[in-house]
Amino acid sequence: MKNAIKLTYEPANAADAEAIFLLNKDQIDRYEDLQSIDYEKALTWVRQKITSHIGAYIRILYENQKAGYCYFHPVNGKMELDDLCILPAFQNRGIGTAVLLQCCSNTDLPIYLYVFTANIGAVALYTRLGFQIRNTFSSGRLLLQKDGSR
After folding, report:
1. Where are the chain's structural domains?
2. pTM for this model (two decimals)
3. CA 27, CA 30: separation in Å to the nearest integer?
């Protein structure tokens, strides 16, 4: 049996905003159909979302090293998992799984998230942990949800 991943969490702050933005930009660059969007407008929106909500972002630490960030917040009677970003050096270590399990254990509310259809690894992770596809968008994104009940 694998040892459980030991993570610690702390609030992100304004100094983290650029790192979060760059992780988001990387996701857009890798998985978005760049020909079908206004790229600069999308990046401006992402930056604005991050800076206006930075106080609600969580810094994920693995062995006292910054491993990523997430933004898990209530929206209309559900919880949204937004911007779950694991730094490349920490990917494929079970950290994303551990963060998702922690989020699920912290609420009885349904949890939803959006993911790029082309991000096959993330889609596989979410579905393995019980998230179901609720909608497929022509923009190349999926809406996934896991119903509440810890």
Report:
1. 7-146
2. 0.88
3. 5
Residue 147 CA to residue 141 CA, distance in Å, equals 20
pLDDT of residue 139: 79
- The pLDDT value given to residue 1: 36
- The H-or-E segment that residue 123 falls in is helix 120-128
| C-beta pairs of 25-28 under 8 Å, 24+ apart in sequence | 27/85, 27/116, 27/119
Fold of 7-146: Aminopeptidase (3.40.630)
Distance between CA 55 and CA 71 in Å, rounded?
9
Closest CA to 125 of 88, 89, 150, 100: 100
| Residues in a beta bridge with 73 | 80
Tokens encoding 47: 């930056």
Query: Residues 109, 81: contact at Cβ < 8 Å?
Result: no
State mean pLDDT over 114-128: 93
How many CA atoms lie within 13 Å of 25's alpha carbon, on the beta-carbon side?
A: 13
